[in-house]
DNA sequence: TTGAAAGCGCTAACAC
DNA sequence: GTGTTAGCGCTTTCAA
């Protein structure tokens, strides 16, 4: 991609009659430069239309000026909404964002985090792991600045940004209970190693029951491999085939909720009259579905900016700062899927 | 980001007892290297755990190994679905993908395409313009390899990948007409400079009417600023307030259709009995909505791979290849929003 | 087939 | 403050 000959730092230096060192200083706003020379250099820069070569700069600096964001699925609305915020926040700081999708592939996730093949392509990574175990996380390249999104717990070597999933899930469940529902189902449990996110929600679900002194209907806690529409639709169908179907469902994502509602309506049941449905994530889809979905809304903007902020801090630090647990706020947004028509409101 | 000392090409050369040139040849699979030296070098590489420094390589080669993909909105399902395909296709070719979101901002789009500030950050760009005029496109940095997605027409200096929007829209409209509907509305027209995408759809809508010798109900052709749910919901409400509301609606995106359906159901109307609704894009949401949305399905995988393929070809060519018009296939997928329950099928 | 060496364009010690 | 200069790690021309 050499188009013609690019204007280099040296060209500018020559024209301005100074050394390249000085030009570099001016361009980067470094050090002390006399106002007069600064001006002369600036003039030369403008005249020549000089633009620094990012590649060369990065090579010399030993950094790439890019951060990677790794998510399991790009087309999951929750992630794409989050990504927007991250890109914005990073750009403000002069960083570019490389986006990667793992499809939840364990091997791919491990590779990324070991920083192997793409060494120096990014200076740090914001990671939303899916298939990655806590151990794999632990024996990663320790020099790679890392911020984890979602439900992992920090081991002190990275930052973790998320909401309080247990509290949020408890709150969602209590909302259902407050409606007078008695047969609550939960869709989305993942009772295995990599299902920590799901397990926290299940725990909140249980805690809500405990607080009310109510038993959890264990047979109504349904597992799903992913948190998407298909899974939600399937699980709901499964639930409806029981003798004693639920009158309310806590779905571990809005997509799951959308899938569940799809099945309910398809079977001629009314939401929320026959079955109340609550979701999680507050994605845009849920606001315009029929009926609109009651949900737990994490503060995505806050999650995005916090993650970027912490990562850049990590990248900039010669000695790694301690790994923090950072909690973004969330709130319950009540819509028609639990409250019925005309009673939409925000709590 | 200097962590310890990295293994360099020279280290390998030293250990293998050859020059760095030879190591480079082996690593890149270049030129003729004796099987014996190749083996010796490979051994040294493995032993030292050498990994090439991408930054240095790119600087020397004068390219970045990255392509940029620019879309108006990341959280639009159509784009995020497309992006997945692009990322995959690029990775296969050893390219990384930089994603940028313009929010449809004209200035931002122009800046990107002029390649100014980010020179050498990416070697080419796949661009889905929104606010950019044909002229702005024309006076861009001519050296920047470019592939345009969507509805622009190539002026011969870039490639354009898309589906035949007129034909697709005509087909969608004819489907509605075939259902025996007589009062067809269209939601999504954008009768101004940057609304070329929308205008093609409107044209297809008209052509379908013409072919049947039917008049277009001009008052039922509604404009919307964007192609999203809110717009669809609003436009639909507007239509229903007419004296003579439509009995079928052609929506210029699935999101618009989802919004329209939301309004319809909210007003107690049945889809498709009272009003049939057809969308465009075939996003996943439309498959699990209530009712599932009949739609025009562009071959996204094909669009993605074609775009990447053409762009890399452009990047690799010393002399720019002629700008091509590339048409990906599309098909009509009939679901309940037009065909009614139980009559889902694919055409 | 392989080696020596000159860049790629910028940064940053080190010296003045 | 500013200049000199040695890299950053790799590619690649030119010779051998």
Automatic annotation (TrEMBL), chains A, B:
Domain (HTH lacI-type) ranges: 7-61
KW rRNA processing (keyword) present: no
GO MF annotation terms: DNA binding
Record-linked InterPro entries: HTH_LacI, LacI/GalR-like_sensor, Lambda_DNA-bd_dom_sf, Peripla_BP_I
Keywords: DNA-binding, Transcription, Transcription regulation
Statement: the UniProt record of this protein carries the keyword Mitochondrion: no
PROSITE patterns assigned: HTH_LACI_1, HTH_LACI_2
SMART domains linked to this entry: HTH_LACI (SM00354)
Matches recorded under PANTHER family: LACI-RELATED TRANSCRIPTIONAL REPRESSOR, LACTOSE OPERON REPRESSOR
The protein's name: LacI family DNA-binding transcriptional regulator
Native source species: Phytohabitans maris
Lineage: Bacteria, Bacillati, Actinomycetota, Actinomycetes, Micromonosporales
């Amino acid at each position: 991609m050499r188009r013609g000959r690019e204007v280099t730092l040296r060209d500018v230096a020559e024209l301005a009659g100074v050394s390249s060192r000085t030009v570099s200083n001016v361009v980067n706003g470094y050090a002390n430069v006399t106002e007069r020379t600064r001006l002369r250099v600036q003039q030369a820069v403008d005249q020549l239309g000089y633009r620094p070569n990012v590649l060369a700069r990065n090579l010399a600096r030993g950094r790439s000026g890019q951060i990677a964001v790794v998510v399991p699925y790009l087309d999951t609305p929750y992630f794409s909404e989050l990504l927007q915020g991250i890109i914005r926040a990073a750009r403000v700081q002069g960083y570019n964002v490389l986006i990667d999708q793992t499809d939840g592939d364990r091997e791919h996730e491990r590779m990324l985090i070991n920083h192997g093949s793409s060494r120096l392509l990014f200076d740090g990574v914001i990671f939303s792991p899916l298939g990655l175990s806590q151990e794999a996380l632990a024996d990663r390249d320790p020099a790679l600045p890392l911020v984890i999104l979602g439900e992992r717990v920090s081991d002190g070597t990275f930052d973790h940004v998320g909401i309080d999933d247990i509290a949020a899930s408890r709150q969602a469940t209590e909302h259902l209970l407050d409606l007078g529902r008695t047969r609550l189902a939960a869709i989305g449990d993942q009772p295995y190693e990599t299902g920590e996110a799901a397990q926290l929600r299940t725990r909140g679900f249980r805690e809500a029951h405990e607080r009310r002194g109510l038993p959890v209907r264990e047979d109504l806690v349904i597992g799903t491999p992913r948190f998407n529409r298909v899974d939600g639709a399937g699980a709901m169908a499964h639930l409806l085939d029981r003798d004693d179907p639920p009158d309310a469902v806590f779905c571990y994502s809005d997509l799951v909720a959308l899938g569940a509602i799809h099945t309910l309506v398809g079977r001629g049941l009314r939401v929320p009259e026959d079955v109340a449905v609550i979701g999680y994530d507050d994605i845009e889809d849920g606001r315009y579905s029929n009926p609109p979905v009651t949900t737990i809304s994490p503060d995505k903007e806050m999650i995005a900016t916090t993650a970027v902020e912490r990562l850049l801090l990590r990248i900039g630090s010669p000695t790694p700062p301690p790994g923090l647990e950072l909690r973004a706020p969330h709130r319950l947004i009540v819509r028609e899927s639990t409250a019925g028509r005309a009673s939409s409101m925000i709590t």
